[in-house]
Amino acid sequence: MRLLILNIGTIVGIDTLHRTRISGLEMDSMERIDNAWLTAEDGVITAFGSMDSCPSSEGFEILDAAGGMLFPSYCDSHTHIVYAGSREQEFVDKIHGLTYEQIAQRGGGILNSADRLHNTSEDELYNQAMERINEVIAMGTGAIEIKSGYGLTTEDELKMLRVIGRIAKSAPIAVKATFLGAHAVPRDYKGRQSEYVELICDTMLPTVAEQGIAEFVDVFCDRGFFTTEQTEQIVTKAAEFGLKAKIHANELDYSGGVQLGVKLGAVSVDHLESSGEDEIEALKGSATMPTLLPGAAFFLGMSYPPARKMIEAGLAVALASDYNPGSSPSGNMRFVTSLASIRMRMTPTEALWAATLNGAAAMGISDRYGSITVGKVANFFITKPISSFEYFTYAYNTPLISRIVLGGKIV
Ligand code: NIG
Ligand code: FE
To answer: Out of 10, 118, 270, 296, which could bridge 327 as a Cys pair, Cβ 3.0 to 4.6 Å?
Structure first.
């Protein structure tokens, strides 16, 4: 199938340099073409240019952008969207003064979701997750990472990973699966945390690897969850099976998870609300992507990670939604970019790169996703005509997406 898009007000998010990540001050510059066209064939972007050099439309399906802007689809590199039901009762508990950690300590939080997941069939879990997938597609997401971690038994973790596999087969977006058995210590192992870590290393990881149903391993390395020693044990074992690491680090405290992630060559370290000079220093010169989740800081009323300091230190930064029932019940990546601008002083340009190309890098797919580049997968959306690129981040609640193209097909 050949698609020609005409009358694009501006194409943004162009990268003709084929970069696999964008770092530091470079994050604030972006190539654009005004009054443009773009072609896609067999699912990939084949060419683009300005309307005065528009190719003949013969043999193309035509899409008239009517002056709207064309954005690369968001690449959301950190989500937990396979979950059963919801946790609005805990939302109310938080309004009444309980903290996320207090809710977890009394057996709610992740363990609450694990109970619900256990009692939900695989088909029902898939159906609920697909509703969320369709919701985020409509909001501009074109690639997503999904974690397990609400199973916490071998059987239920595998059930989650199978559901993620089914989503990967049926959804029109790229899907990456992460095994997060070390999300919380299940009730049966209370007081025997090291035995649960052994179960992960000796049974869960070998089974996950044998079935080939996850590409990454993750650990919630933070106060009250898993220690840096346990994280190292799990990540090292996972590496024997070829699973790369993405680590939940420094959400609740200065956990040492960032330094450990860098040392172990993690693809990303995520959250980072508690980060200072040492964390930034550790990240310098490493390939580990700091991934910030301002939706979680917003929802839990936490302080935001020091994005400006990271960018000014020359780091690349990624943004992701953390879509999950406890700390971020939203997968709206556009809102994430607006929060990044409003609360972390990232410019709309920096925020867009962080939510596209750098998010793709945090999933190891930035050679094929995350920018408007010839040869990359044709994943993008078109807006209604807007007054400027910045307007899209500024008018954060106005519905502005009018058309979505995934894999070169209009959806
Ligand atoms: O990224 N921090 C750990 N995990 C999730 C929350 C999961 C939950 O509360 O269900 C997060 O915030
Ligand atoms: Fe998370």
So the answer is: 296
